[in-house]
């Protein structure tokens, strides 16, 4: 059974602190949220990789590994940092931080494909989350008011992870591995790569994830950034690419 406690400050702004009883063990929840089977459509996005292949920047497992390693570093100082801060804000009821986070996540998407990916995956994850005994009605109601439109994926994900009794480090590591697994699967199709080559790339990324997560946790809100001009250019070119397997 869900329980909600809503306290009010002197300015009558609601601050939500909540608990929810979940019969699924925390470790399984983490694996579930990082699973390719989660119905949010992550498999349909290459996040610029397909365009990089088209323009000759990625052509084998070595170049795919280097490309994805650079994307992991970008993820660390951007979305992973945002998710870490979102988890903390949901758990403490810091509404001002959550409102700022939504604004940043929307502003940081500088291309149509990136915005559509964030919105589509966010809405799909939110639909899934509403059917799980994780977030409380009060949290979901605040999310709807805070977003006032399509909720960014990283924002919804931060709420889902905040409800699980695990450390921020564990939450980010599983999400980073889920991202890496999805991107390697995209590389298998787009480059293309064989399964063994794909596992070499995944092994490299798995070894780099702990450092990326540590960087994300240490990044303050004012230092979050997703500045990657070449990635933005490739994403824009992908919109008109003649032959495409992926939506980004």
From TrEMBL:
Where in or outside the cell?
Cytoplasm
Domain of life, per lineage: Bacteria
Q: Does the keyword Cytoplasm apply?
A: yes
Record's InterPro entries?
A: UreF, UreF_sf
A single Gene Ontology MF term assigned here is: nickel cation binding
A single GO CC term for this protein reads: cytoplasm
Q: How does it assemble?
A: UreD, UreF and UreG form a complex that acts as a GTP-hydrolysis-dependent molecular chaperone, activating the urease apoprotein by helping to assemble the nickel containing metallocenter of UreC. The UreE protein probably delivers the nickel.
Q: Could you identify this protein by its name? A: Urease accessory protein UreF
Its lineage reads: Bacteria, Pseudomonadati, Pseudomonadota, Betaproteobacteria, Burkholderiales
Q: Its gene?
A: ureF
